[in-house]
Design goal:
The complex is a heterodimer of chains A (115) and B (116).
Chain A lengths: L2 E3 L4 E5 L4 E3 L2 E3 L5 E7 L5 E7 L5 E3 L5 E5 L4 E6 L8 E8 L9 E2 L3 E6 L1
Parallel strand pairs in A: 2-12
Antiparallel strand pairs in A: 1-4, 3-9, 5-6, 5-10, 7-8, 8-9, 10-11, 10-12
Chain B lengths: L3 E4 L2 E4 L5 E7 L5 E7 L5 E8 L3 E3 L7 E4 L7 E4 L8 E8 L11 E2 L3 E5 L1
Parallel strand pairs in B: 2-11
Antiparallel strand pairs in B: 1-3, 3-8, 4-5, 4-9, 5-6, 7-8, 9-10, 9-11
Classes of the chains: A mainly beta (115), B mainly beta (116).
Chain lengths: 115, 116
């Protein structure tokens, strides 16, 4: 079965420190991977995606993610966290095949950045 | 100029009622989706739809039905509401080019449904 795992329910970081939110995946075929962020009582906002090419993908708000095929991972990173980055982060994968492109989401990781 | 919009934002209703949630996108996308986010924040696809094909997640009860009056709208109708239907429902859209899986989905703000 195709799936996405976010092993941490919550990540706590001090402002100014680097942050990493982990994601691993299990899919057949080439993975198309996405990160979304959900602020409280808001919808999901697209951050970045990996389709092909450079393993390091840069996205919105200074976030980036590194695709690692051997480790089947797509961790989200930011060099210097901001308090305003505190939110719920979802990793997602597009399943292989099919005519339409619904996403399979991880369970989400709550990021808390303290001043 | 909101890209994907949903109405209402909040919906409180009694068990057994029938309700609808509307979704509109002005991005010119050809595919729309409905997702359900439960109380633990877990997101799961319910439907995906374009002008050619409706794909239904087999776990979705047939009390739920999407209806698309045109390419820019995909409304969600729910019959005989149950307590377990309480959740946040998100609409999304994307442009699915033939042979490509690279499209990005854009989400609406969500509708919080509470069934009493």
């Amino acid at each position: 079965a195709q799936s996405v795992a976010q092993p941490e329910d919550q990540v706590n970081v001090a402002e100014g420190n680097p942050l990493t939110v982990k994601c691993t995946y299990s899919v057949s075929g080439n993975p198309y991977l996405f990160w979304y962020v959900q602020y409280p009582n808001r919808g999901l906002q697209f951050l970045l995606k990996y389709i092909t090419g450079d393993n390091l993908v840069k996205g919105s708000y200074g976030f980036e993610a590194e695709f690692n095929k051997s480790q089947t991972s797509f961790h989200l990173k930011k060099p210097s966290a901001l308090v305003s980055d505190s939110a719920l982060y979802f990793c997602a994968v597009r399943p292989y095949g099919g005519s339409q492109g619904n996403l399979i989401f991880g369970k989400g990781t709550k990021l808390s950045v303290k001043p | 100029d909101t890209a994907v919009s949903q109405t209402p934002k909040y919906l409180v209703t009694q068990m057994g009622n029938d309700k609808s949630i509307k979704c509109e996108q002005n991005l010119g996308h050809d595919t729309m989706y409905w997702y359900k986010q439960d109380s633990k924040k877990f997101l799961k696809i319910m439907f995906s739809y374009n002008n050619k094909e409706l794909i239904i997640n087999e776990t979705v009860p047939n009390r739920f039905s999407p209806k698309s009056p045109d390419k820019a709208h995909l409304n969600l109708h729910i019959n005989s509401l149950e307590l377990g239907d309480s959740a946040v429902y998100f609409c999304a859209s994307s442009q699915v080019r033939s042979g490509s899986r690279t499209d990005t989905q854009y989400f609406g703000p969500g509708t919080r449904l509470t069934v009493l």
